[in-house]
Amino acid sequence: MANPRQVAIQTIATAKHQLNRVDFRKAHVKDLFGIHVFNEEAQRQRLPKSVFKALQKTLRQGQPLDPTVADAIATAMKDWAMEKGATHFTHLFQPMTGLTAEKHDSFLVPRDGGGAIAEFSGRELIKGEPDASSFPSGGLRATFEARGYTAWDPTSPAFIMEHANGSTLVIPSAFLSWTGEALDKKTPLLRSMEALSIQALRIVRLFGNSAPKKVFTTVGPEQEYFLIDKNFFYCRPDLINTGRTLFGARPPKGQEMEDQYFGSIPERVLACMAEAESELFKLGVPVKTRHNEVAPSQYEIAPIFEESNLATDHQMLVMEVLRKTADKYGLACLLHEKPFAGINGSGKHNNWSMSTDTGENLLNPGDTPHDNAQFLVFCCAVIRAVDKYAEILRLSIATAHNDHRLGANEAPPAIISIFLGDQLNDIIEQIEKGGAKSTKQGGLFETGVSILPKLPKDAGDRNRTSPFAFTGNKFEFRAVGSSQNIAGPNTILNTIVAESLDHIASALEADVKSGKSLTAAVQALLPTLIKEHKRIIFNGDNYTEEWHCEAEKRGLPNIKNTVDCLPVILKKETISLFTKYRVYTEKELQSRYNILSENYVKTVNIEGQMTAYMAKVLLLPAALRYQGEVATTVNATNAAGIDNSDQLDFLKKLTAAISPLQRSTNDLEKALAHLANGDAYAHAKHMRDKVIPAMNDVRKAGDTLETMVAEDLWPLPSYREMLFIK
Ligand code: ADP
Ligand code: MG
Fold first, then answer.
1. Which of 300, 305, 379, 461 has most ligand 1 atoms within 8 Å of its beta carbon, as the pocket-test mutant?
2. Sign of CA dihedral 683, 686, 687, 688
3. Ligand 1, CB within 6 Å, residue ranges
4. What ligand 1 atom has the least distance to the C-alpha of 220?
5. Cα–Cα distance between 637 and 624 in angstroms, integer?
6. Is the pLDDT of residue 645 over 60?
7. Measured in whole angstroms, how far is the alpha carbon of residue 315 from the centre of its chain?
8. Are 636 and 626 in contact (CB under 8 A)?
9. How much is the pTM?
10. pLDDT in tens, 392-419
11. Do the Cβ atoms of 345 and 482 come closer than 8 Å?
């Protein structure tokens, strides 16, 4: 009888997938975009003029919404949604699980005497009260006082989510406790954006620009992911329950040929991508690029940037739509940071900038950045922030999943540093020495082929190894994990830059007040800032051993894992930063510390339990069966009087390989059973120091057996199969 692995391969070989599920020849991209969004156009068409104006005022200037207009908006939204098949509405929020949460309510209201009407009031639009006692609150709320409220976020438009039998009106919302503490990731993000806006406007005003009323942070998050056949996925309890493979020997061919990056996209995958994109277009998510990534079966999707709050909501949709769509094509979408050991993991490149509401990108250097003082001020503010708060930035990407990636040879290291590129680095060096006089220009690119056009050359090369790189008119924070909600990292980025801008604005304002010209004030301030913070700038290869030594000499923090990162939340410096800008209260920070510690414990505990389970009921039985087969052969040849010393030798080797699996599994189970005294953090330490090493030992024993046991007995699809059979 074939084992599940073999059945999976046979099924894949003969499967017929329906690939032509969308047709862009009939439904054009431009006609699809935003059709499921209650966007400005829909609002203008559907709302009374005065209501539309009031809503726009809220959206553009951040003014609180007049509650009296909420009923009119709710009714218009409901009518619009019902025309698109909606039966229910839901407040979509982002609890501390890192996922999204939704509870659906129908529009239906039965009427006395029979019949029913559809109703949706302004009150229901503005506020929801899910019984939210089971979401992690990190001690912010006891279950006996479990009230949690969702509050409509009008700055992220409502949309329609279709399902097989209808659709749901989805209302992006914040999630707060009865006492007003943030229980989610959206609320702090919105607070951080406001904090940055206030400080950035001070700088913009100093430079004489009074037109902007708001500064937005903008984000364009690139998402990396794997797609493997679902038949394999279902044979891997580790992938199903932990998101990553806990066993798997290195395949003979991995990614060493570098033949996958930007390679031609397999047909089934391309069809899946096209449908996912079409769904995202309908939801108003401006997805722009797709390509094969470095690892086999790894891909990337990237949108055009938007203001951070919307970009975050859209990013959550990207992950959800990718997962759902993959399923329709017989694929499983893996968003874990490191699904396959020894193969590149996945990240989320968080491209970040600041922009005025009048459309000026404040990190756009222009053609001659050396005399673009406003740009240099904003740029130095970021440099200062990243240096001063490197530990907090590192904290923003610390998860058990991302620990497998940061510092390995493919992802940026756990050491936070900034890459500026030749051009900007040259200017910064000039400023430090007393003033920037010139900008290195790129010139033209010589191809050596007369029929090719002469291409303008960028002034600097790219760097793919830096965790935080200036890429022309934005910074790219590359260390964010592929399954992370980007709200967290952006909340922190916005807050540390807000503090920096505050510091700089205060210095410049004081100088100007005392009679100095702004130019003189800037010329005095920037060299000091650069001297103080240039240790964070590194333009070389961040993967090398030399950089690790150099970084240590410079005194840059190198926090290698999540457990070491977590105490940063409770540092005095962290608390005063976040409370000063009203992004997190002290209580909220304490709750994040608890939740993140618990999260780490739970993640590793599930992995540990799964490792032991798989070792016992999948791997050991396969190994014992094979041992039995070999022993039978050895006995039979022995009985026939044939020299079988090599076979006997193999039986000994096999037996010697099975014992470590059993012993290490026992050790792992002991480590898992150990109840640490103390809090979640003490537990987390135990997980890191005892459980993870024990898991690694079991894996090592399992992977050794994978290369010894007959393939027809081995139950788990191998790396070779999962990554290359498409
Ligand atoms: P690269 O090729 O350097 O990765 P792209 O121009 O393709 O750069 O952009 C990568 C991502 O950066 C895209 O999602 C893009 O929308 C985003 N991006 C571009 N400009 C900005 C900006 N001002 N703020 C935030 N993100 C941006
Ligand atoms: Mg990329």
1. 305
2. positive
3. 218-220, 222, 302-305, 351-353, 361, 471, 473-474
4. 14
5. 20
6. yes
7. 8
8. no
9. 0.95
10. 999 999 999 999 998 776 777 899 999 9
11. yes
